[in-house]
Amino acid sequence: MTAHPTRIAEAAPRYAPPDTLADPALRAFFKLAEHWKLRIAEQRRLLGDPPESTFYKWKRQQGGALARDTLERISYLLGIWKSLQILFPDPAQADAWLHKPNTASLFGGHSALERMLSGNVADLYVVRQYLDAQRG
């Protein structure tokens, strides 16, 4: 039995096209960067090291398309922020956690931010996964 193509298309989940996500994703990222008191170099690193001109274009909110990798990075960062807000009732404590040395084996005495600044999207995933596990 073969499904009719239009029925499959109707049943498929609807996702926002990536080009419509760029502006809200970047606004959220730069607001997050303020809360976490991230330096420009750290912001660029977390976004995947875009060229300086591209980064400042994004920062000026002149839009532009984002690569899938950049959207994925921002998604992980927003998930990390959300988990921290849930784990720590005090927003200042939640924001500070990122910068503090951590004895969990995952961090080896370094801060979560240091792990996240390795440049690998997988490290953002690992930190998010760690926090999600802490939430239970």
Automatic annotation (TrEMBL):
<dbReference type="Pfam" id="PF09722">
    <property type="entry name" value="Xre_MbcA_ParS_C"/>
</dbReference>
<dbReference type="Pfam" id="PF20432">
    <property type="entry name" value="Xre-like-HTH"/>
</dbReference>
<feature type="domain" description="Antitoxin Xre/MbcA/ParS-like toxin-binding">
    <location>
        <begin position="83"/>
        <end position="136"/>
    </location>
</feature>
<dbReference type="GO" id="GO:0003677">
    <property type="term" value="F:DNA binding"/>
</dbReference>
<dbReference type="InterPro" id="IPR046847">
    <property type="entry name" value="Xre-like_HTH"/>
</dbReference>
<feature type="domain" description="Antitoxin Xre-like helix-turn-helix">
    <location>
        <begin position="25"/>
        <end position="79"/>
    </location>
</feature>
<dbReference type="InterPro" id="IPR024467">
    <property type="entry name" value="Xre/MbcA/ParS-like_toxin-bd"/>
</dbReference>
<protein>
    <submittedName>
        <fullName>Uncharacterized protein</fullName>
    </submittedName>
</protein>
